[in-house]
Amino acid sequence: xxxxxxxxxxxxxxxxxxxxxxxxxxxxxxxxxxxxxxxxxxxxxxxxxxxxxxxxxxxxxxxxxxxxxxxxxxxxxxxxxxxxxxxxxxxxxxxxxxxxxxxxxxxxxxxxxxxxxxxxxxxxxxxxxxxxxxxxxxxxxxxxxxxxxxxxxxxxxxxxxxxxxxxxxxxxxxxxxxxxxxxxxxxxxxxxxxxxxxxxxxxxxxxxxxxxxxxxxxxxxxxxxxxxxxxxxxxxxxxxxxxxxxxxxxxxxxxxxxxxxxxxxxxxxxxxxxxxxxxxxxxxxxxxxxxxxxxxxxxxxxxxxx
Length: 306
Prior knowledge:
- There is one protein chain.
- This protein has 306 residues and is α+β, with helices and mostly antiparallel strands.
- The chain contains 11 helices and 14 strands.
- It has helices at residues 13-21, 32-38, 85-95, 129-134, 138-148, 159-169, 177-192, 230-233, 237-249, 264-271, 290-305; strands spanning 3-7, 43-47, 52-56, 58-61, 64-68, 78-80, 98-103, 114-124, 152-156, 196-202, 208-217, 220-228, 255-260, 276-285.
- It has a 10-stranded mixed beta sheet with strand order 4-5-7-14-8-13-12-11-10-9, sandwiched between helices.
């Protein structure tokens, strides 16, 4: 078995993406175009002649390299022959003294690793909208019916406007300028490839009530980011927006990934469309040491104050 680590500019993108095409779900974050958008310097672990691969992205804590997920990339992992997963994670364990890595896959980096679970919501789509609609909660059906009378939907390609709306209306997330630049680059790339779209919801007097961006890749539909403006909250604007997207894409995509949310209100919104909880994993190595935890926390605080 031969394991190599190379910069993304050196990989065979056709062979790499072919492995992603063969995955059933949770593959969108591993495609080369997606990784190029979120981390220009990502590296690749390759087993033999692309029998298995794994993207490698890292940051630094105290000048020490830390294996981690790039922003807007909540799940990564090993693609191709999963029998090589243990060999790959052990290889990465030797390269990185610090690890904070999330994946939908059960992995083994180190015997002393800390593993915690996170939850996201996904909606299997069987191509029959009426069946999916029957699975909505009563409250969601009520909100959609109400919104139909007052809300209209339009596609948009104004990516800078979208990112600014997200920045100023998602109070539970803090976006640095670098994160906003990455979001804009990712969405621009997806739109240029015809693998993403933005939907805006407007009131009858054409005030923006809600907006959302989705990524389409293979049979997956990924909700990237979205925001409901104050005027849209009582009108059911986001309920109507998601219902329209489900109606449009249930015939062509098998899964809608709402993204992760342990927050009760967001999870309830997602589950109101019939979505189910799916567990994924956070792997940590040495991040539980008091000094590292303090420095990582201080770094996040400094970013928020900038």
